[in-house]
TrEMBL record, chain A:
Protein name stated in the entry: Fumarate reductase subunit C
Gene Ontology CC annotation, any one: membrane
Pfam families xref list: Fumarate_red_C (PF02300)
Classification lineage: Bacteria, Pseudomonadati, Pseudomonadota, Gammaproteobacteria, Oceanospirillales
Keyword Iron: no
Length: 131, 121
């Protein structure tokens, strides 16, 4: 039997530049690029801890490189942008019901931001307390 | 009748992507703030990051949570998105992209979790 010739619509690689929403979509997809860099930094940190005091100090020096700080500032912005696009989706995909009432979207989104803030404040406070 | 191809492994990748997305939004900002900004900029004094005491923490149980929540799961989240972005931009072959994307995420996870586990046990 002969295979039917399939129809393949031609599509440009720049399709996402044609609409503001597509650009925003691609920008959100791109937030993971600095995340991979940060994860790599953290792996190096754990390995430095494993190697010894000297490796730890040189890892700290690497993290203090102005370019690395700049990329990590970008990573922080990327993670917050990811959160801002992700949190409003959660209560729509998985509505939380208490009895017959559905929790309002804003309450859940606010709650999720509160968790982000609490974890950040707790970690910063812990390290300030250690100092 | 059309035969549908069912990828049995997709639920696993999606679960890792999803869990990693929550970690990326909730745990990663705190980690970047402390280790990417406040430590290197000297805003939190260096004595907080003293090697001797941080080694036990980083390569102990808190380190295991860190390796899983800040490194391994976000790595799977990131590489899943990169795989799909490659498809969006028609780059490479999907079957090949899958291998390097999840392969790299697995390697990163193994390097992070492994170094902690070796010290824990």
């Amino acid at each position: 039997m002969q295979k039917p010739a399939s129809y393949r619509p031609s599509m440009s690689r720049r399709w996402w530049l044609q609409h503001q929403h597509f650009v925003l979509y691609m920008l959100r997809e791109a937030t993971v690029v600095p995340l991979v860099f940060f994860a790599g930094c953290m792996i190096a940190g754990l390995w430095a801890l494993n190697s010894g005091a000297e490796a730890w100090v040189s890892w700290q020096a690497f993290m203090a490189n102005p370019l690395v700080i700049l990329i990590n500032l970008l990573t922080l912005a990327a993670s917050l942008f990811h959160a801002a696009t992700f949190f409003p989706l959660m209560p729509r995909v998985m509505p939380i019901r208490i009895g017959a009432k559905t929790l309002p979207v804003n309450a859940i989104v606010g709650g999720m931001w509160a968790v982000v803030a609490i974890i950040a404040i707790a970690l910063v406070a812990y390290f300030i307390w250690r100092a | 009748m059309m035969k549908h191809h069912i990828a049995k492994d997709e639920p696993l990748w999606w679960a890792l992507f999803s869990a990693g997305g929550i970690c990326f939004a909730m745990l990663v900002p705190a980690a970047i703030l402390v280790f990417g900004l406040l430590m290197p900029m000297g805003i939190i004094p260096a004595s907080a990051f003293d090697y001797e005491s941080l080694r036990g923490l980083g390569l102990g149980w808190p380190g295991l949570i860190f390796a899983g929540g800040v490194i391994a799961l976000p790595a799977f989240h990131a590489l899943h998105r990169i795989r799909h972005s490659c498809a969006d931009l028609m780059l490479g072959k999907e079957s090949v992209n899958k291998v390097w994307a999840y392969g790299l995420a697995s390697l990163m996870s193994l390097m992070a979790v492994g170094v902690v586990l070796v010290n824990l046990f």
